[in-house]
Amino acid sequence: MKAYLSLITAAALGLAACSGQQSAPAAQEPAATASTPAAAETAPETASEAADNTAATPSCEAVIESNDQMRYDTDTLTISKQCDEFTLVLKHVGQMPKMAMGHNVVITRTADIAAVAKDGQSAGADKEFVKAGDERIVAHTGLIGGGEETRVTFSPSQFGDGDYSFFCSFPGHEGMMRGKVVLTD
Ligand code: CO
C-alpha cells in the first residue's frame, strides 16, 4: 500500500524528482500541493524560525495551585531575568473559605521568611497577613479561598543577590507552604 501511494506521488510530481524517486515522496508531498517551487522552499524556513523563537523566549508567567491540604503544587518557581515583567497566578483548587484555609504567595529572601511571616501575622487578616510597605517583600499576591484565583505582576529586576523563596503568610502555613525561587538569565 505504501509503495503504491509512493508511486502515485512520484507520478504527480512528474519527472521533476528524477534523481530521487526512492526517498523523495514523503518529503515532497507538501510540495506537490504548492503552486510554485519557491513557495515550497519558504515553508520549512518559516517553521524553523518559529521554532527558534519559541526556544529563545522565556515564559514570563507561572501558575501555582494551592489546595485544602495546605499545599502548593510545586516547590520551585522559575523566573527569568529576561522578563521585563513576570506574572504569577495563584489558584486555590480547594473549597475551604479564605479565613479557614487562605493562601497567598509572598516572595522574599529565604533568610527573611520567618520575620516576614511574623510581621504579616501581626498585621492581621484585614491586611491579608502581609505587613504594608514591607520592603523585604519582592512581590505578593492577594489572599484567596477555595475556588478563587489571583495574580500579581512584578519586575524581576527587583531581585538582588542571594537566595529567594516563596511562601504562604496565612498563620501556620509557612512551614508547609514554601518553595525556592529559581532565577535564570
Ligand atoms: Co496558605
Written overview of the protein:
This protein has helices spanning 2-13, 24-33, 37-56, 98-101, 113-123, and strands spanning 61-66, 76-80, 86-92, 106-109, 137-140, 149-154, 164-167, 178-184. The chain folds into two domains: 2-56, no CATH class; 61-184, Cupredoxins -  blue copper proteins (Immunoglobulin-like), CATH 2.60.40. The radius of gyration is 27 Å and the shape is globular. It starts with a helix and ends with a strand. The chain is an alpha/beta fold. The strands form two sheets. It has a five-stranded mixed β-sheet with strand order 2-8-7-4-5, with no helix packed on it. It has a three-stranded mixed β-sheet with strand order 1-3-6, with no helix packed on it. The site of cobalt (II) ion has 6 residues, from loops.
Instruction: Estimate the helix proportion, in percent.
Output: 25-40%
Shape: globular
Secondary-structure element sequence? HHHEEEHEHEEEE
Q: What's the count of strands?
A: 8
User: Which radius of gyration do the C-alpha atoms yield?
Assistant: 27 Å
Distance between the termini: 52 Å
The small-molecule ligands in this entry are: cobalt (II) ion
Low-confidence stretches: 1-51
CATH architecture label name of the largest domain: Sandwich
How many DSSP helices?
5
Instruction: Please give the CATH class of the largest domain.
Output: Mainly Beta
CATH superfamily of the largest domain: Cupredoxins -  blue copper proteins
Mean pLDDT over the full residue set:
81
